[in-house]
Each structure stands twice: as C-alpha cells, then as structure tokens.
Amino acid sequence: MKIGYARVSSNNQDLELQKQALLKAGCKKIYSEAISGKDNNRKELNLMIDALRAEDIVVVYKIDRIARSLKGLIEIIEILNNKKVDLISLDSGDKVDTTSPIGKAFFQIAGVFAELERGMINSRTKAGIVKARADGVKFGRTFGSKNKTTPEKIEKIKIFLQAGKSYDWITNELSVSKQTISDIKKLHNIKKR
Can you tell me whether residue 175 is helix, strand or coil? Predict the structure, then answer.
C-alpha cells in the first residue's frame, strides 16, 4: 500500500499542494504535520512508521519533507529497510528506491543538499540579525519591561497555581511565560492545595 507523508515547517504554510500530489500518486493514507524537520521525533512521522507493514511504499513530495539532515535521513532509511518498506520521492518525477544501491546513494546525496540548504538559511538569518543590530535594530523587550496584559492576569495565575494547575496549562490558558508564572508564585509565596 502507498502511504503518504506531508510536512511543512509551520502552521503558516499550506499542506494542500503536497497532499494533492500524494493522492494523485495513489496514496491510500496520508500522515501530515506542521513541524520542523530538524529531528525525527515527530508525532505523525512516528505514527506512520509504527503503522508500516512489509512491502508498503512511503511517498513524499520531496525528500526534505521526511528529514532535513543527513543523519535523520539515514535513520529513516534504516527503519524503512528493517521494515522492508520502499520510499518514493515525487520531486522532479524521480523515483527513489532505497532497496537499490543507486537509490540509497541518491537518497543520501539529496540529504546532503537538504542539510546544506538548511545551513545556508541559518547563515543568512544570522547575517541578517548581525546587520540589523549594526543598523540599530533592537530585538525583544527592553530590560525590565513587562507585558501590559500581565497585571490583569495575575489574579487568575494565583488562582490557577493554588488549584494545582501546571505551568504548561497556565501558559496555554493565559498566554503568559513560565517565568512570569514562576515570578508570581515566588512573589506571593503560593503553594499547591
């Protein structure tokens, strides 16, 4: 069975192009997610790998959708080989067959280029930040400043802490940092019930 895997780096990006291409390629099931590909610890990727059976074929829009580093690609190749699963990339219509020596070599070369592209993006980002700082651009809040909405949330934070809610839960509920929660807990000497 052909199984598709689609990935974008953030929720701002659209998965639809990849999904349509995977459906057109004959995928019966598609796993998709919006998350960085810098490591292989991704929920949908892991669910897909767990569900794979011998002779399944994993189809991706581009090789860098399944992993962004050569190390990550090699780990996935080994997992797929152990499960007797093939991999096809739809990029430029080239089929990557990881069971053949040429397919393995192509897959690794493509991984090197994906890693190179990531490194170049990081370098350009760092260079942009250096230039912006040199031009006088300030990043982040000024030292000692506070979020204007925090005073309205302090009472809620205190109540949630006393009720035993976790920092993660409060952060998600009120959109405040864990540091803010910790500061309020210390300032008001709040203990869980």
Answer: coil
